[in-house]
Structure formats: structure tokens, C-alpha cells
Specification:
Blueprint (H helix, E strand, L loop, with lengths): L2 H8 L3 H32 L10 E7 L7 H13 L4 E7 L13 E2 L2 H10 L6 E2 L2 E4 L4 H5 L3 E4 L8 E2 L11 E5 H7 L9 E4 L1 H5 L3 E7 L16 E4 L1 E2 L4 E8 L4 H15 L10 E3 H8 L1 H35 L1 H9 L4 H38 L8 H25 L3 H6 L2
Parallel strand pairs: 5-11, 7-12, 8-10
Antiparallel strand pairs: 1-13, 1-14, 2-13, 3-4, 3-9, 6-10, 8-11, 9-10
Helix pairs in contact: 2-10, 2-12, 2-13, 10-13, 12-13
Length: 419
């Protein structure tokens, strides 16, 4: 099969061909970027929080005013919650991953890094910006954090938090594995000192006593920072706090109902909150709702565009079959087989879609560059381009197959009679 005559034949339909090329190029560009964005969103939605989410419930308590003995009341609440049948652990915390709020602060792994950071007033190696969580006794058990090095907090490690959402002056902390690697890339973070908050300027640090596998932020941002956290053994004592309850999954609904009734009784002046008590699975679902919606929209848009492109290819192939009935009949009459006719239309489609794919790859890179500038999207990995090209080629061959088979099935006599 010779390509120059095929190109010459297509040259008689320049406008139609270029419209199809443009459609294939736009489809290739959009589908490649949409597939990349869907992959990123799916990875984000499935990111481990670090918590053992099954059986974890979160009670959110907000009071109209802070009482003098507020922390004592909260600690009494925790003791009462632990006595509910089915509760395996309960802890007072100030935040959990994906709840939508967080406290963060510059944290350094050495005094030398502190000095360099204070001098530069910018990011320096050995310092990071992790999320800071505080929690009371049983916080690791209640949240289901996995300790990979060091130890859990001991009773003597816990201190009282201060009003105004300030942590107490704890002497020990537990950090996430990601933060440990960033502050101490040489390893052995357990036993090292870490500096944050007022300790940065005073040169007073807290000792790392343990490392947990994961602990995500309350609000996700840059992927490199999302799993960096410091857990401080400080019992929060503000007007708004959280209670983390651990139970068997089968007992969760009953435990939540009992806990809500108990806190209602102990705090009749609490502010009404639609999210007063809920399984942690609902916290995660609410946080990633927009991502799931975006995934659905991107998939629907990509499939819709592929469908329209397939319709365009099939419609044009049908039109050309009708227009070329005479030439098909003549070719059949002079010896062309059905396979020759079929391969001709497939090769013609391969050529048109191929030009569209080449332009589409360039357009995909340009679109990705624009998305990087406007929405801080990461660079499109190159494997998406050949995969997108293969998808479009297969789509083109599939769309042109039926018209090509119909053209190949035209008997020479019937074809010439229609002229």
C-alpha cells in the first residue's frame, strides 16, 4: 500500500481532514492531562492518614465559655467515656488528620539548623514546617497510631495545655517517620532533640521518644509536607476540644450514642454542632468529597470527549465510503481484495489520527505547563503520552472498522451499478 496516493486522496478533503486531526489532538491533550489528574486525585484520596480508622470515633465539643477548672472537667469526661461498655481507649486531642484545621510551626532538628533558619528567615536543610498535634493519655491507642521506633508516652510525659490553644511545656514528643527522615536524614531520630515554638528562640528543645509510621496533616497541601507531624503530650484545655474514642467497629454506633448522651449530660451549655459525634470514616469522606466529585467530572469529561471523537471518525469514514463507492468498485474489479479495501481505510485513519496524536502530545505538554503555572499541578510524566497515543489509535481503528468492513463487503458489480 503506497502512502503518497493516500495523502493525495486526503488532500481533496483538506478541511475535513484537518478538523479530524484537530479533534484528535485536543482529545489526546485533554485525556492525557485528565488521566494524570485523576491518578493524582485517587492517590490523594487513598493516602493513609496514619490512624487505624476502623472503630475510631471523633466527638467534637465546643463550649460557650471557658471555666476555671476546664481541663479538670475534660479529664473527668475522658474518664467517664472510658467507662462506657465497648470503649477500648479514649483520649483528649486538639486535632486529627483531615478535620480541616491545624496548627503548624517551624521545627528544626538541631541548634545549628535553628541559627541558620533564624539568620536566613527562610527554609534551610534540617528544618521543616510540620503540623503540631497535642493529646492526652492513651492518645496513641485511641487514634491507632503505629509506633515504628522508640516508645509511647509515659504518665510523667504529659503536661497541661494552656488557654488560647497553647501547648504545655512538654519535654518529649513523638514525630512521624517522614519528619524524622527530614530532620535526621542519617537516621536514629529517637533520643535526638527537636526545636519548635518558643524553643526556637530560647534554644530549648524537646526530646524525640518515639516515631510513628504516618500522621497526616489536618489540611493537605504539598505532598512532601503532608506526612510530617509532631505529637506533643499536652492535654488541651480550650473551649473547643476533641475526644477520640476507640471501640470495635460493631460497637461504634452504640458507643457514639452513649458518648453523646454522656457529654450532653455533663455539658448542658455546649454549643450545638452537627458534627458533634461521628465515625472517623465520615471525617475522611467529608474531607475528600470534592476530590471524589472532581474525579467523577474528569472521568466523565474524558469519556465524553473520546465518545465524540469516535463518533466523528466513524461518521467521516461512513461519509467517505459513500463518496468512494465508485472507486471501491473499480479497485475490486481490477483485483483488490476485501482485505486490501479494509487495510486502506484503516491506514488512512491511522495516518489522520497519527498526525492528530503528534500535535496532541505537544498540546498536552503545553496544557500541563499552563496547569502547573495556574494550579501548581506537577509535571506530566512522559508515560502518559504514549499510553494516550495508543488509546487514541485503538479508538480510531475501532471507530473506522465498521465502515471499512462495509466498504470491503461491497461487490464490484453492485459498486459499479451505483454510479
Amino acid at each position: 500500500m503506497r502512502v503518497p496516493p493516500m495523502i493525495a486522496a486526503l488532500g481533496r478533503h483538506r478541511l475535513t481532514c484537518w478538523l479530524l486531526v484537530l479533534q484528535a489532538a485536543v482529545t489526546c491533550a485533554v485525556v492525557c492531562n485528565a488521566a494524570f489528574m485523576v491518578t493524582q486525585r485517587v492517590q490523594r484520596v487513598n493516602e493513609p492518614s496514619g490512624l487505624r480508622e476502623s472503630g475510631l470515633s471523633i466527638m467534637s465539643l465546643s463550649l460557650a465559655k471557658l471555666h476555671d477548672d476546664q481541663l479538670a472537667q475534660y479529664l473527668g469526661d475522658v474518664d467517664a467515656l472510658r467507662r462506657i461498655p465497648g470503649v477500648q481507649a479514649a483520649a483528649l486531642v486538639d486535632g486529627v488528620p483531615y478535620l480541616g484545621g491545624e496548627s503548624s510551626g517551624t521545627t528544626c532538628g538541631s541548634l545549628d539548623a535553628v541559627r541558620r533558619m533564624l539568620a536566613a528567615r527562610a527554609d534551610v536543610p534540617g528544618c521543616a514546617e510540620p503540623v503540631l498535634y497535642s493529646g492526652g493519655r492513651q492518645v496513641l491507642q485511641a487514634l491507632g497510631l503505629t509506633l515504628v521506633a522508640g516508645r509511647d508516652f509515659r504518665d510523667g510525659d504529659y503536661v497541661h495545655g494552656k488557654a488560647g490553644y497553647q501547648m504545655g511545656d512538654a519535654s518529649s514528643v513523638i514525630v512521624s517517620q517522614s519528619l524524622a527522615r527530614r530532620l535526621y536524614p542519617e537516621g536514629n531520630a529517637v533520643g535526638q532533640m527537636v526545636y519548635f515554638g518558643a524553643g526556637l528562640s530560647k534554644g530549648q528543645g524537646q526530646r524525640i521518644v518515639g516515631v510513628v509510621e504516618h500522621l497526616q496533616r489536618g489540611i493537605l497541601g504539598k505532598a512532601i509536607d503532608d506526612d510530617q507531624a509532631v505529637l506533643v503530650p499536652s492535654e488541651p484545655a480550650d473551649a473547643s476540644v476533641l475526644f477520640a474514642l476507640r471501640s470495635a467497629a460493631r460497637d461504634q454506633r452504640r458507643v457514639l450514642a452513649a458518648a453523646a448522651a454522656l457529654l450532653d449530660e455533663r455539658h448542658p451549655d455546649r454549643l450545638q454542632d452537627p458534627n458533634f459525634g461521628r465515625p472517623y470514616a465520615q471525617v475522611r469522606a467529608a474531607y475528600f468529597q470534592r476530590d471524589r466529585t472532581m474525579i467523577g467530572l474528569l472521568i466523565a469529561s474524558a469519556l465524553g470527549l473520546l465518545f465524540v471523537t469516535a463518533l466523528g471518525i466513524a461518521g467521516l469514514a461512513n461519509f467517505w465510503v459513500q463518496q468512494r463507492t465508485r472507486s471501491i468498485g473499480i479497485r475490486r474489479a481490477i483485483g483488490a481484495t476485501r482485505g486490501d479495501i479494509l487495510r486502506y481505510f484503516q491506514a488512512e485513519n491511522f495516518l489522520i489520527v497519527g498526525v492528530g496524536i503528534v500535535l496532541g502530545m505537544l498540546l498536552a505538554l503545553a496544557l500541563n505547563l499552563w496547569l502547573m503555572q495556574q494550579y501548581e499541578l506537577t509535571r506530566l510524566p512522559w508515560p502518559y503520552l504514549p499510553v494516550g497515543a495508543l488509546l487514541l489509535w485503538l479508538l480510531g481503528q475501532g471507530a473506522v472498522l465498521a465502515p471499512a468492513l462495509r466498504a470491503a463487503a461491497v461487490p464490484p458489480v453492485v459498486a459499479t451499478r451505483t454510479i
